[in-house]
Structures are given as structure tokens and as C-alpha cells.
Amino acid sequence: EIHIKEPIEKEVNPRLLPGELLLCEASTVYKYMQEDGSNRGTYGKLVCTNFKISFLDDDSASDDNEPQFKNKIVGENDITLQCVDQIYGVYDEKKKLLTGQLRKYPEKLIIYCKDLRVFNFCLRYTKEEEVKRIVSGIVHHSQTPKLLKRLFLFSYASAAPSNTDGRNQTVMFETLEDWRDELERTKGNVKYKAVTTNEGYRVSEKLPLYFVVPICISEESILKYEGRGIPIWCWSCHNGAALLKMSAFPKEQDDSTSQMQKAFLDGIYKTISKPPYELLKMDDLSSSLPSLQDIQTAYTRFKQLFLIDNSTDFWATDVKWFSLLESTNWLEIIRRVLKKAIEVAECLEIQHTNVLLIEESATDLCCVISSLVQVMMDSYSRTKSGFQSLIQKEWVIGGHGFLDRCNHLHKSEKEEAPVFLLLLNCVWQLVQQYPPAFEFTETYLTVLSDSLYVPIFSTFFFNSQHQRDTNKSGEVLKTQSGPFRFLSVWDWSVQFDPKAQAFLNNPLYAEKPKPDKSQRKTARFKHQRQLSLPLTQAKPSTKRGFFREETDHLIKNILGKRIGKFINSSDEPPNSLREFYDSWHSKPVDYHGLLLPRIDGPEIKVWAQRYLRWIPEAQLHGGGTIATAAKILDLMEEVQSLQVKMDEEHSQAVSGDVHSVPMLRNSARLSSLFPFALLQRQSIKPALPTSTWKDLEDEDDLVKRDDEFVDLSGDML
Questions:
Q1: Which of 26, 53, 83, 713 has its CA 20 to 30 A from that of 700?
Q2: Is 670 exposed, middle or buried (0-12, 13-18, 19+ CB in 10 A)?
Q3: What is the structure's pLDDT at 691?
């Protein structure tokens, strides 16, 4: 049976941003719902602009029934050109990858997105000329190599008004003052200094304008090898030990050059190993962590598990889910990265040793490890503004090549690697293990990962500060007095209104208590773990199950079988590290002290919200973290309204401007896909797609219960 919504009669035009141009369009395109084996869907218009691909149906014209968590820039039927991963055409029921010039045009178009959405369009009822125009237009604008200046980023910056909310606490690290303030905040200004040697980029175009080095390093040393071989400061621990990074010399060199470089490095090491500096431990990340190619290969395999075309595909992969997940090696890479961060934390915290991270460019895995260590050891980095400042410092100004690693220009797949996504996946592990320690939520991390592909922000679209500055100054000269301003992704008001932004903030964040005056004069101790009581029971269970809470049957039965994953620890940590790890986990958690992730066995999980949010079959009806969030936000709303009433009674005046939280009434009608998708149909069991299902039917709770309605009106919490 084919359910068809009649073609729309009224004209629906796309909402264009400043600088956005309509390039091609096709009418009478049929978009499949992509939920089950039926051909249900809706007719509409498919358009391609210099910013996005967009499907417009009659629902696009109305503002009724809008989701609470609405992105003002990218709608649910919009795909930015940078978010397109692969495009397939269907010819006589056979899928074929579409690239470059096309001789024959497909009857169906399947677009796989980097945020893991899948769009299915039927072009059988569309005029032939329009099919040619729209298919070749979409393939050309989203898949072929382009120049940097052709990015929509430049069109938008020239045309957009400069009236966005400037109130932003994020430190951008674009001035010398920002670096000096950070040195002062971490008490690193005794042994380290911010330098101006690279002003005008006379040392290197890869280095930022300003950075921090040990006080004993001379300007001549920095200039000698374009900044290579120079230890650059990342962060100082409370005990004085510091985290440093260094760009290594190329390995293929002639003997005389190698000898000179070795002598230079020996001199540097001797200088920074003497007092007042701590002992130095060097860690070459290129040999101790997976290569970028390994990371890219693992993620490519991993994401295929979630790019689901239809229900049948989902249930077919679900039967062998664990073996497929293990074969990708993605969770094992996350575990290895977290373990490396624990090693570095142990050197800084226990051994009082400076750690020098070494990598060829010091802009990939160095960024991951240094950021993770700071999130684990510095509670400021677990606040929203602190985390954003950290990304600015280590990644944006630090020179991570977002343009190449995300392959935004489709220049070279060899350079592509999801390094920043790897960091977000690692931070998510910490967020879900220690929710009260973070001011932001997993929804914040998911939205941040989506923002990688929105080219109206300059944050993730350049390889270095030099590249951004030179392109910006060139455009300003070109437009002369006209407006030209790159937006920062940290201005969340551009994408979300205040009600939606509430989902990015953690209502259960354990804010740092202000110290009493009597305590200020006392000496600063190391992390006071033994003196603080946990907000929740923090000791790990002695059982090696998927979850600590044996009572949480809903999560355990439905989500656990798909999300939890046991990983054998092939490389056991050394004794001192193991002792440090076990000792920390045997004590209560201080949410403002050191945080160590649990990395044994099934503790490393799949980031469910990011990877499963578009798959209706994987949702929990009325369940998941959103059920808890709904209850908490309802309670907060009630408390706020009571507070307003009390204030009114005291002042005999009506308070006008009250900060509201999202209304999430009737949480049983939501699902774990929220806030990215509204409640979908109940998951339908396949009609015996494989013989395996028959064997599993009697024993698997998940299969038996997947259509069961969960009533949240009782005492779920």
C-alpha cells in the first residue's frame, strides 16, 4: 500500500539567509518517510542553494507544530552542503555512488549526511529537465573540490547584519592579554611567558600570533626552526607541573641537518629540565596512539552502523550488533585515548612531572590529549564558557586544520580524519559518567558536533589563525566600508532562541561553592577528594554488568543491549598507573577536583544521542535521559513560579521578565529521540527477516518488549 500526500498547490519558497542564492530546484519530488518498508511520504520541492539542500513541503510554509528545539539556521529538512557525506542514485533498484559528471540520471536519490541523517527522494514524477538540473546541481555543489572563497561563510559574512548577541564569556585567545590572563589563572606566570615573536607571522604561519613558552627560551631559538622543537605551554597544574606540546622535526633529513637539530633539542631539554622547572617526561603521540589514518578508517566503519536506509536494514544489523561494533575498533580507540589522558594526569598530579607531548605538527592528537587532561583536572574547563575557551585555545588558535580534517573543500580525502569528533566522543564519556561535574549537557556536545558543518561560523572552517586573518583582511579591503564580520559558533543565540538554549545547560550541575574567608588563608591542598561527600553513590559496582544500577530495567533491557560494549583490555596499564586509577575510583568523587574516566570493559559506551537520534527503531518511548530531564525541568518550572508568587507577595508588584525553562509536559509522549526528533511510531518487529530472529524470540527481552508502552506517571525517578 502506498500512502501519498497530494502535491501541494500553493507555492512554497525557501527561506534564504543573507548572501544565500537559489541555484536550482525541482518540483513534484517525493520524499520517503524512511521509517518502514512502506512507501509513505510527502510531495514537495527540492532546492539547492549556495548554502544548503532543502526539501519544502506544505508543512514548511506553516509555523504550526514547530519543535521546541528548533535550529534557526538549519531546519529538519535542510542539509548544508558541507554536511553531505555521500550521494547515491538508484537505477533499477541498484544503488550507485554519484560523483562528477552523470550520463544517466537516477529515479531515486539517497543523501547520507555527516550528522547521520539519511534522506530518500523519489524523482519518478519529476520533469526530466528538472531532474537533470537538481541532481547535477546537488552533486556538483556538494561533492566537487572548491576554492576556500567559494564557501558560503564569505557570502554570509559580507551580507549579514552585525547585530548578534555580543555578550559572550568565551575567551578567544586572539590577544596577548588573553594569554597572560590564562597564565595568571593557572599560576603558570612564574615559569612561563607569553611571547609576541610571531607578530606578523614572521616565525611561522602555522603558529598563532601569541603563545606561551618557558621563560628561559630565547627569541632566537623560536625563530631558528620556524617554531619546531620549541616546547609550547598548554596548561599548569596546581602543583606547578605543566603540560607542554612540541612540533617535531621531520624524520627524513640528511645527517648534518639531523645532528644540528638533535644538538638544538638537547640544549632545549637541558634548559627546561633544570630548576625551577620540574622533571620532564616526553611522550611521542605518533608512536603511542593510533595514527590519523587508523582513526579515519575506524570512524568510517563505525558510522556505517547508523546510516540506516530502512527498518529491514536496522533489524538485520541488530542481530549481529556487538560483533559489528567491535570490528569497527572505534570504541577501543576512545578507550586508548582516555587511558593516555589518565597517564598524563598521573604524571602531573602524582609525580609532579612536566609532560611534553610531541607530534609532527602538534595540532591533532596533541589537541585531543591536552584538552582531555584539562577537562579532567581543571573544573573551569567543565563549565560552558571554560570548555569553549579551551576549544578556542587548543584547537582554533592552536592551529588544528579543521578545513582539511573535515574535508570541507573536498580537496583531499587523505587529509580527512575525525580528530575533533574523537575529542567530543571522549568528553561525552566523562559527561555521562559524571553528569553533576559538567555545566553543559550531552545535547550541547551533539549540537557542537553538528556545528562543524554549518558554514556561517568561522570557528571550524580554517586551518590556522593566519589563514583566517589573511582571508578576513582581504575581504575587508574588497568590501571597503561594507559590513564583513565572521561569526563565532559560541554565540548560541544565532542558532537557538533562549528556550532552546536551556537544553544546553545542565540543571543538576554541582556549582563550585564559594570559599569561606577563614579558608582562604589556609595552604592550597591537592584535590580534596576524601573531604567531600558525593552527590550520588560513586563507587563502581563490583559486578561487571553493563550498568551499575540493577534496578533500571527499562534502560538495561532496551538500551543496554545496543549501547553497552565490552572491550578486552589487551594492554594493561603499568602498576603505578593502575594503583593511581584504582585508588582514585575507591574514593568519593569531588566534582570540582580531578576526574578520571572509567575505562574498564563496558564503561566505554556509544554516544547514543548523537548516533541513534534519527533511527526510530532505536528510540525509547517515554524513556531515556529525556524522561529524567522532563521531570527535572518541570520541577524547576514549578519552583520558579512559586518563587515569583513569593516575590509578588513581598513586593506587591508583578515581576515582568522571568527566565523560563522549556515546558516538557506529558513526558510519556516524548521519546529518547527528543529534542532532535519528535515522537515517532512504535518500532515494528520485522516479519522474520532472518532465521536468527526465530531463535531469539523466546529469550530476548528486547524483542518481546519493544512495543510495550511505558507509563512515566509513576515513580520512575
A1: 713
A2: buried
A3: 43
Would strands 354-359 and 280-284 be described as parallel, antiparallel, or unpaired? Answer: parallel
Dist. CA 323–CA 325, nearest whole Å: 5
Low-confidence ranges of the chain (pLDDT < 70): 1-11, 34-38, 60-68, 163-167, 476-483, 515-574, 626, 652-669, 678-717
Q: Give SS3 for 442.
A: helix
Grid cell listed for 67: 519543535
For position 629, what pLDDT does the model report? 75
Beta-bridge partner residues of 214: 192
Asked whether 639 and 659 are in contact (CB, 8 A), the reply is no
Structural domain ending residue among the three candidates 460, 485, 504: 504
- Tell me if residue 355 falls in helix, strand or coil: strand
Residue 655 lies in a domain: no
Residue 26 domain boundaries: 22-144
Give the Å distances, CA to CA, from 412 to 112, 405, 454.
19, 9, 20
> If residue 704 lies in a helix (H) or strand (E), which one and from where to where?
helix 701-705
Q: How many angstroms separate the CA atoms of 436 and 438, rounded?
A: 6
**Closest-CA residue to 409 (of 462, 470, 466):** 462
Q: How many domains does the chain have?
A: 2
Q: Which of 485, 504, 523 is the last residue before a domain boundary?
A: 504
436 in the same domain as 496: yes
Residue 29 lies in a domain: yes
Domain of 76: which CATH number? 2.30.29.30
125 and 71 fall within a common domain: yes
Place of cell 596577548: 176
Closest CA to 248 of 271, 237, 270, 264: 264
Residue type, 643: Q
CA distance 342 to 139: 44
